[in-house]
Design brief:
The protein is an alpha+beta fold. Helices cover about 15% and strands about 30% of the residues. The chain has four helices and twelve strands; from the N terminus they run ββββαβαβββααββββ.
Length: about 240
Amino acid sequence: MSVRLLFDRFDDIRKRIDIGDVRQAGDIPGYDDGAAVVPHGNWTALSEKEAERLRPAADTLPSMMVELVSQDLPAFTSDDLPGRLDAATALDPLAGRWPRRRLACAASRPGQLTSTEDSTTGHRIGLHVDNFDQQPYSTRQDGRRRLCLNLGPGTRYLLVGDLDIKKICRALGCDQDEYYPHTDDLRRYVAEGHPLRCLRIRLDPGEGYIAPTEFLPHDGSTSDAQTWSLAAFWLG
């Protein structure tokens, strides 16, 4: 595994993280094309042994880690979307640890296998890598991480692939220093039958993550949620 998850004790994440396989979307309605990578759905609870394999090594850069975080939220009424948007604007994320300039907010209805949509088509794109910093292969691990907080009212999930995009590109022979990794590389990797697994991390309201979204394939999900939720994002 190349994904690295920062945690103290296994009891802190027990029953909060599942692991499973991925597949291509094929003819699932709502996806931009059949090549989009989505969870297979064969989730099993992450074991303590598997969790220990996710721990960062002593020399792992913070920019390559996934960290789970929490934030106190204002009281909302259950259907108060405007109030949640206002709260996201006013939040000082993690008590000054993170830049206050919010990147975006996204409201998601329950039951979505993955949540990110292509704004030009309205179709979902599946697991993907971000490209805000446009780092080439040689320095891809140096991109800024992204903070996401679930503002509720429903539960959300972070989906994250267990291999980083550099290892994926290396397997495809696209490991030239000047090459720019892309979501299409992830799709080709899966289409060619290379192994990739996916973590599903539950985020209740007030919980979130700091993750290298330019380095690790990822997306959000509301697959088992009972109601909609709003996610707020800040770029590190």
